[in-house]
Structures are given as C-alpha cells and as structure tokens.
Specification:
single chain; 3 helices; globular; 3-stranded mixed sheet; 3-stranded antiparallel sheet
C-alpha cells in the first residue's frame, strides 16, 4: 500500500457545468461554472476544461522542474500552456490535450527532452495516459 500524501476534496453542486458551483472542502476554491459561449452557453464563468488545464499545466511545470534538477539543467524562464479540447460526436464526449512547454536557457533538443520526460512523471499525464490524446511540444525563447 502506498502512502497518501494529500487528498483534495471538491464538491460540485447545482447544474454542474451549466451554472453550478465547485467548492473545495478547505475553502480555497469556490468557483461558479458555466458552459462556454463556444458551446452555446452563457460563458462568464470557468468550466471543467479550464480547471483541468490549470491543474495539468501547473503540475506539468513542476514535473519539468524536477526533471531539469535531476539532469542538472538550469532553466531561465518556464511556462506551460495547456490546451484542453472537449470533443463531441453524437453526444459521445471526449477530451484531448496539447501541452506547450515554453522555456529559455536551454537548446531546442533539451527543451523537447525535458517535456517528454516530464510527461512520464507528471501525475496528470499518468492519470490520462491511454485515455486522452496528448501532444507535447516545446518552444525555446531567448532571455531578454
């Protein structure tokens, strides 16, 4: 049995993604949910895809930092942009994701290697592996 180090408890109420609310048990999260305008909703509030993107991007960024430290690679700047797409075909819904690593202080090959290695250890990547089509890419920016 593995040791549990943290459990997040979040409750969704109301109409779920269509005007509902999601709250964390510890009070740190309290968001109203809305269907995006692009899907015919009112928009104006967050949606589950944005929440997944925020969690996955921040977790993936941490995984990149872990991999970089293990490889003794110094990073100047680092960001992860997560594109989470909700697909629908005849009421059959599924997700896909693109994780865009933006980094400076390394060459393109190293950036790509860091992204692919992070994808192997990131808990979100592990949780979705085999269920969500994921692409990983890296862009190297010059430090100003």
């Amino acid at each position: 049995m593995t040791e549990t180090t943290y459990t997040a408890v979040v409750t969704a109420t109301g109409e779920g993604r269509n005007g509902g609310r999601a709250t964390a048990a510890d009070g740190s999260l309290d968001v109203t949910l809305a269907i995006p305008k692009e899907l015919g909703g009112n928009g104006g509030a967050t949606n589950p895809e944005q929440l997944l993107g925020a969690g996955w991007a921040s977790c993936f960024l941490g995984a990149v930092k872990i991999v970089a430290a293990q490889k003794k690679v110094k990073l100047a700047d680092l960001a992860v942009v997560a594109d989470i797409t909700l697909h629908n075909e005849s009421a059959d819904f599924w997700l896909s994701a693109a994780l865009h690593l933006e980094v400076s202080g390394v060459d393109q090959t190293t950036a790509e290697e860091l992204g692919h290695a992070a994808h192997q250890i990131c808990p979100y990547s592990k949780a979705t592996r085999g269920n969500v089509e994921v692409t990983i890419d890296a862009t190297v920016a010059t430090v100003a």
